[in-house]
TrEMBL record:
Native organism: Diversispora epigaea
Superkingdom to which the source organism belongs: Eukaryota
GO BP terms, alphabetized: telomere maintenance via telomerase
Protein name per Swiss-Prot or TrEMBL: Telomerase reverse transcriptase
EC identifiers of the protein: 2.7.7.49
Gene3D superfamilies per record: 1.10.132.70, 1.10.357.90, 3.30.70.2630
Function noted in UniProt: Telomerase is a ribonucleoprotein enzyme essential for the replication of chromosome termini in most eukaryotes. It elongates telomeres. It is a reverse transcriptase that adds simple sequence repeats to chromosome ends by copying a template sequence within the RNA component of the enzyme.
Enzyme class: transferase
Keywords noted in UniProt: Chromosome, Magnesium, Metal-binding, Nucleotidyltransferase, Nucleus, RNA-directed DNA polymerase, Telomere, Transferase
UniProt family annotation: Belongs to the reverse transcriptase family. Telomerase subfamily.
Length: 1108
């Protein structure tokens, strides 16, 4: 529990004490440090009654703020040295005191437990006893350097004295706030997640790169006071901590809403290792969301007090989900005649025993269906086992099972007749005939979507296969299971399906095969029956339905239908693939002769594979080059001699950071930047448009023109690209600095390793980089890992040359090399593309740099706006003629202007029916530059296709978080800044945001389990109300940097009106919400003429074209 008193002890000082004493309320820190306090609170208690003045009248504000906003946690039994407070012996300096601390920390370092302190990184035990300092220096430590140079730390040393200062640096975890504001009462100091640099520490586990925190002293944290977006968080889990996110795009908006507004920097200490090793922290059953801060202590104490010896097993059916991902993008099997293999996979246990001469085939089948009864690896006892490993084990356990030692429980021997029938019925089942009957080939149709079998046909095939193979005696509730299988097939990509959902309303007592003669049906017996039934249903889905689907169908998505799942027979998909490969190998890829394959594979990057994604309903496919998967080339680590497979993107990540560093340098001066009009985020678009709008205070007529480059990645000249990169890289050497980030994200505390590049001259200034991060991101902790690597410019160019000129892919059994363009899917492709077309702008379109116009380009989408009509005509004409030197040619059909212009006697498509110009998902007003969301993009598309409904764990909490995520994703200043948009436009943007949110709310609620009488409409109203409140928080949180002339009451009224308007179409389903919505709508705001104008449906007619 926290040691913070209700009324902190005031220090003995004649100066004015701080007006507000903040207890550390950050949930991340409180989760891991129960005794976290502000530095001022802690020292006030320790110095109580002593003649030490922590704060004096003449102290500067920086020192006071340092004490008031820093957080500290002491995790030692060592007593604070009160007797020597203020004493500095022999005129020892602050620097010599730090050296003494480092010496002590290095001496107690234990490599076996990997426990260390950020202060000791770069320092080791001395090689000889003659070393006067007591430690050796391997490399510079920017954390200790920062402390040595810090005036506030030196001042604190002078106040506390030598012993107290050593005690703090040696035993405490300290967090220092970044960008603190004057109103400290509004700041929520973050609780320390980890003070250790152990490999098991959350600071060294992988976490999102979009975090901010900086490391300073021994245990220091940096805090940036911005609003985040996640109100409910959960404990760190092993699964979450291992997730790696290489999304390093800058300017990405944080999607987490929280009560805490802080980003911190920390150093390290030992105690967190004990917490992280707790099994309870790596157990998914504990992923319970916290609702409010007041409830955290109880949950936190439960997590921390579990002993490491205790094992927590997850047996709840709602926590066990089937591995649906195993059925996607699976290549077909072939028979001995090179024909397609239909039915169950060749290595499925039912096919293995089909030709087996073993006398124990029934025992083998039994141990595959009921592995838990044999003590084998299973999903119930080992819920965190890798899903791919489990999937393979459940199909065939040859590596795990010794046939001669199988001991069958008597309960299962009784099932042998049923299992024998199962085997025999599988032998005679003609899966190919069933497939042709229920999912006939459609190779004569014109479109890929039509070529797929619809989900009802697929279900009919699976249903009949189950009827013919699985003995009916296994269940009396067959309709329930078949209904669950139908729902399973209809699910969208990424949606999960739990065992609990599959067995909902299924009654074990109706399964006669579970009964044992002479055994009373008491609780123990009932539990055993349910246990066996669970195993059978799990096997049915995981080892029969999923293998059946992936062996007979290529399961994929469609670019035009987002997450909707499409099922193509493998023999049909083969024709689609051949058509796509023919196009690729004709224009983009060249086949490599067999004699050159081995030589090319010996490169640094190896080769990757591609898959084809249906692009639309016109037969087009899109190649997806998967550069995130480990390449088929082993990398040997020199230190551990361990062989691992790395992905191409992992190998290129250092190059990405360096290019990103150069990009950041050039973004500051757009007029001279090689990036030209490149935009990397909505923030940059907003900033550019607002600056241009301010130049045009006296409104003049604006001329718009947009063009789209045809095949922008594939048309880039490789040699010219390398020349451009050579110019972009302005340094001969670059330094890469490592740091860790801890943050609340997606309902969990996650840690990710990250790094940033800089020139070797600026390398040591990590604090400056951390402060820069704190302006962009929210709510996190940054730990300086004091690790650096250096990369030579020549090495970067050499790696990029191999990446561009030797991009190898494998299709079938053949290798191909990309002959033109740059690889799509590469982590560096976006930056390379932006620099390439930026240089083209400089050389081919120099007039777009003038102040009378603005060029915006998002990858291949150009938009030029100017008050000079001739320049816009010149731009659109030049782009239509193309730039052969750069391989740049546009798609004429996608060009658009807002005035009459003719090229080669042909008019360019002109904007009709309004003044809102569409570009990259925005509608930009051609007179005012006001921006709205372009919802016309969603016309004739089903809203449900864009959703992923998660029902396995805490579906209610996931619903709430999803609605918050949806509504806040469009609460950007480009839509809500009333100094950029008119107030009417801002209100309309808010209203339409709620309209689309209401549509998604309906489909999400409808997709949740327990519908009908079990629905909790009271909770649904809580979710809707929370959605309104979250929108208010996020919109108004920007009021300190932008003008937001909108009241919370207006936002909530618009939200209620939007939900009532949309749900009226489904009123019978949402009857319980209308009382609450109507109550809000009937407030005096309904008489506002402006609000009534905003909600006029004529302004939102575009929503009529959305399929709802």
């Amino acid at each position: 529990m926290s040691n913070i008193p209700k009324n902190p002890v005031q220090p003995e000082t004649t100066s004015k004490s701080p007006t507000t004493f903040n207890s550390v309320r950050n949930i991340i820190l409180r989760t891991y440090y129960p005794n976290i306090q502000t530095l001022y609170e802690y020292l006030s208690i320790q110095c109580d009654g002593e003649k030490i003045k922590l704060i004096r009248n003449d102290d500067n504000s920086e020192y006071k703020t340092f004490l008031e906003t820093s957080a500290i946690s002491i995790t030692t039994d060592e007593i604070f040295p009160k007797n020597t407070l203020g004493v500095i012996r022999n005129n020892n300096t602050f620097e010599s005191m730090i050296d003494s601390v480092i010496k002590q920390l290095v001496a107690r370092f234990d490599s076996r437990t990997s426990i260390s302190n950020v202060l000791t990184l770069g320092f080791t035990k001395p090689r000889t006893n003659s070393n006067p300092k007591g430690f050796s220096i391997q490399y510079d430590n920017s954390v200790t350097d920062q402390i040595r140079r810090s005036p506030v730390w030196n001042e604190l040393f002078q106040r506390l004295g030598e012993d107290a200062m050593e005690y703090i640096l040696r035993n405490a975890s300290i967090f220092i706030a970044l960008n603190h504001k004057s109103e400290l009462s509004a700041a929520n100091l973050m609780n320390q997640v980890s003070s250790t640099t152990s490999a098991k520490s959350p600071f060294t586990l992988r976490m999102p790169s979009t975090l901010s925190a900086v490391a300073q002293p021994s245990n220091t944290l940096i805090h940036s006071e911005q609003n985040s977006k996640m109100e409910d968080i959960e404990l760190l889990t092993k699964e979450d901590s291992q997730l790696s996110q290489e999304d390093l795009s800058l300017g990405q908006q944080d999607k987490n809403l929280s009560q805490d507004n802080s980003t911190w920097f920390t150093s390290s200490q030992e105690t967190i290792c004990e917490i992280i090793e707790d099994p309870i922290l790596s157990n998914p059953i504990l992923k319970r969301p916290f609702g409010c801060l007041e409830s955290q202590d109880n949950l936190q104490n439960k997590a921390i007090k579990i002993k490491s010896s205790e094992k927590v097993k997850i047996s709840s059916r709602s926590n066990i989900s089937f591995g649906r991902h195993n059925m996607f993008f699976y290549n077909p099997g072939y028979d001995s005649n090179c024909g397609f293999w239909f039915g169950l996979p060749k290595d499925h246990i039912l096919n293995v025993v089909r030709s087996s001469k073993s006398p124990n085939i029934l025992e083998l089948v039994a141990c595959h269906i009921f592995p838990r009864q044999f003590g084998l690896c299973n999903v119930f006892d080992d819920p965190q086992t890798d899903s791919h490993k489990l999937f393979k084990l459940y199909m065939h356990r040859s590596s795990e099972v010794d046939e001669s030692k199988l001991q069958v429980p008597s309960r299962l021997k009784k099932l042998f007749p049923l299992l024998n029938r199962l085997i025999q019925q599988h032998k005679i089942c003609r899966y190919d005939v069933l497939l042709n009957k229920f999912c006939p080939k459609k190779c004569d149709l014109l479109t890929e979507t039509d070529l797929s079998s619809n989900s009802h046909q697929v279900f009919a095939f699976v249903k009949e296969a189950i009827r013919q193979v699985i003995p009916g005696e296994f269940w009396e509730n067959q309709k329930i299971i078949l209904k669950a299988i139908e729902k399973f097939i209809l699910l969208r990509q990424h949606e999960m399906f739990s065992l609990h959902e599959a067995m909902d309303k299924f009654q074990a007592k109706k399964c006669k095969w579970l009964e044992m003669e002479g055994v009373k049906n008491n609780k123990v017996e009932a539990d055993k029956r349910v246990e066996i039934l669970n195993e059978f249903i799990w096997w049915l889905f995981e080892s029969f339905v999923i293998p059946l689907l992936r062996t007979n169908f290529y399961v994929t998505t469609n670019a035009s239908y987002k997450y909707r799942v499409f099922y193509y027979r493998h023999d049909v998909w083969y024709h689609v693939v051949q058509k796509g490969i023919s196009s690729l190998t004709k224009n983009i890829f060249k086949e490599i002769p067999v004699e050159n394959e081995e030589e090319l594979q010996n490169g640094t990057l190896g080769y990757s594979t591609i898959r084809l994604l249906p692009k639309d309903n016109k037969g087009a496919v899109r190649p997806i080059n998967n550069l995130k998967r480990p390449i088929r080339k082993q990398v040997i680590h020199t230190k551990t001699n361990r062989r691992t497979n790395q992905s191409v993107n992992t190998i290129l990540k250092d190059t990405f950071h360096i290019l990103n560093f150069e990009k950041e340098r050039q973004v500051t001066d757009r007029k001279s930047s090689l990036l030209g009009g490149s935009m990397f985020s909505l923030n940059e678009i907003y900033k550019s448009l607002k600056e241009y709008q301010q130049i045009l205070r006296h409104h003049m007529k604006l001329y718009f023109a947009k063009v789209d480059v045809r095949c922008c990645f594939e048309s880039i000249d490789q040699n010219r690209m390398l020349d451009i990169v050579n110019d972009v890289l302005t340094e001969d050497d670059y330094a890469l600095h490592k740091y860790d980030v801890v943050k609340c994200e997606s309902n969990a505390i996650r840690t990710r390793h990250n790094r940033y590049a800089t020139s070797t001259d600026d390398f040591a200034n990590f604090m400056a980089y951390a402060k820069e991060l704190s302006r962009k991101f929210m709510n996190g902790i940054i730990v300086d890992r004091v690790k650096e690597t250096y990369i030579d410019k020549k090495d970067i160019l050499s790696l990029l040359e191999e990446h561009l000129k030797n991009n190898l892919i494998k299709i079938g059994n053949k290798f191909y090399k990309q002959a033109i363009g740059i690889p799509q899917g590469s982590v560096v492709s976006t930056l390379l593309c932006s620099f390439y077309y930026g240089v083209m702008e400089w050389n081919e379109l120099p007039w777009v740099k003038n102040d009378d116009g603005i060029m915006l380009r998002f990858l291949d989408d150009f938009l030029y706006i100017s008050t000079n009509k001739e320049k816009v005509v010149k731009f659109i004409t030049a782009m239509h003629k193309g730039h052969p030197k750069y391989g740049c040619f546009i798609n004429d059909k996608k060009s658009l202007v807002n005035f009459d212009v003719k090229i080669d006697d042909t008019f360019v498509t002109k904007l009709e029916g309004g003044l809102e110009f569409p570009w990259c998902g925005l509608l930009i007003h051609t007179k005012t530059l006001n921006c709205k969301v372009d919802y016309k993009r969603y016309s004739n598309s089903l809203i449900a296709d864009a959703l992923t409904i998660k029902t396995a764990k805490n579906p209610g909490e996931l619903l709430k978080n999803k609605m918050i995520e949806i509504v806040t994703s469009k609460c950007h200043p480009i839509y809500n800044d009333t100094s950029f948009n008119s107030r009417t436009t801002v209100l309309l943007n808010i209203y339409q945001n709620f309209l689309i949110t209401a549509m998604k709310f309906h489909y999400y609620v409808k997709g949740l389990p327990h519908q009908g009488r079990q629905r909790n409409e009271t909770f649904e109203w809580v979710v809707v109300k929370k959605t309104f409140e979250s929108a208010c928080k996020v919109i108004q949180s920007k009021s300190q940097t932008q003008k937001i002339d909108v009241q919370s009451s207006e936002i909530k009224w618009l939200g209620a009106h939007a939900f009532r308007c949309i749900l009226t179409k489904k009123r019978s389903y949402h009857q319980g919400l209308f009382v609450h919505l109507t109550k809000i709508c009937n407030t005096p705001l309904q008489k506002s003429m402006m609000l009534q104008s905003v909600v006029d449906w004529n302004r939102s007619k575009v929503f009529d074209d959305l399929l709802f």
